[in-house]
Amino acid sequence: MPVPMPVHAYAAPAAGEPLVPTVIERREVGANDVLIEVKYAGICHSDIHTVRGDWGPQSYPLVPGHEIVGLVAEVGSGVTGHQVGDRVGVGCMVNSCGQCTNCRNGDQQYCAEGMVGTYGAVDRDGTITQGGYSTHVVVDADYVLSVPEGVDLAAAAPLLCAGITTYSPLRRWGAGPGKRVAIVGLGGLGHMAVKIAHALGAEVTVLSQSLKKQEDGLRLGADHYFATSDPATFEQLAGSFDLVLNTVSASIDVDAYLGLLAVDGTMVNVGAPGEPLSLNVFSLIGARRSYAGSMIGGIPETQEMLDFCAEHHLGAEIELIGADKINDAYERVLASDVRYRFVIDTATLG
């Protein structure tokens, strides 16, 4: 009989209720599994949306967290890519069908049967996945990533979501030398987008509601910084960019931002607003522009991102907190009062 492992965690008992300490059970380590002692877990805005039921009904109690880093504590008999003591990470997914065209191409996030999210999802064995706000997690080895030594472990946690969410479109749409890139928003996603776009060699402009974070933006690698609350910004920058990466999860005037693109430019949405966005198709037709979306990245690209960040000594700007501050952190995220990502020290969960 398999013997599940009890571990300490923080869970939402119901929609809208504060997270509380709890004990959950992790499955026994199978042949292709890795048991990870979680050291740090990032807090993503999507954690808050999910546990509060904003994106649909959930199965409670629910342990969130899909920005997970730690050390390998045990490996299954068939695992060859990871060893006890290795620095590893787990991002937004822990399984997929592995057989569809997208999975075979390394785009597991677009699995035709639906990827299995790190928490709040039905795993292949029928259980509900529980996330990284816990002391340990058991994950299929194919979804465990190596965290290189060049990145501080705590600062690496947000790379598993915010890092790959911005790296993937920046790479796909060719951010690099000679390219003019605008980053909309300087939050958890946006600050990583600035760092990565700068490291890729692009000319980087931040478009933020106000200039209050301008000093940060320039320090993180932006060449220019403009306030979108000033209508003159959209006149001054019309037709200026090859790529606009929208990281905000709020309603925006899509047509205004599309007007910032040069001929053949692309605007990519990675922020996920709760309501539909609309546009005038002439904003696209008039300059052969494109409007696109992107969601995290597959396992190979996520590993590529981690290696890139290690090479360029990039990590998230973080505020490290104890588990007793999780609920406070949620309120501060909603108030945009964090620069730029909360990370939980999971040693405080026990």
Automatic annotation (TrEMBL):
Record keyword Glycoprotein present: no
MF terms in GO: alcohol dehydrogenase (NADP+) activity; zinc ion binding
EC class (word): oxidoreductase
Catalysed reactions, as listed in the record: a primary alcohol + NADP(+) = an aldehyde + NADPH + H(+)
E.C. number(s) listed in UniProt: 1.1.1.2
Listed InterPro entries: ADH-like_C, ADH-like_N, ADH_Zn_CS, CAD-like, ER, GroES-like_sf, NAD(P)-bd_dom_sf
Enoyl reductase (ER) domain segment(s): 16-344
Gene3D superfamilies cross-referenced by the UniProt entry: Medium-chain alcohol dehydrogenases, catalytic domain, NAD(P)-binding Rossmann-like Domain
Keyword terms of this UniProt record: Metal-binding, Oxidoreductase, Zinc
Names of required cofactors: Zn(2+)
UniProt family annotation: Belongs to the zinc-containing alcohol dehydrogenase family.
Annotated protein name in UniProt: alcohol dehydrogenase (NADP(+))
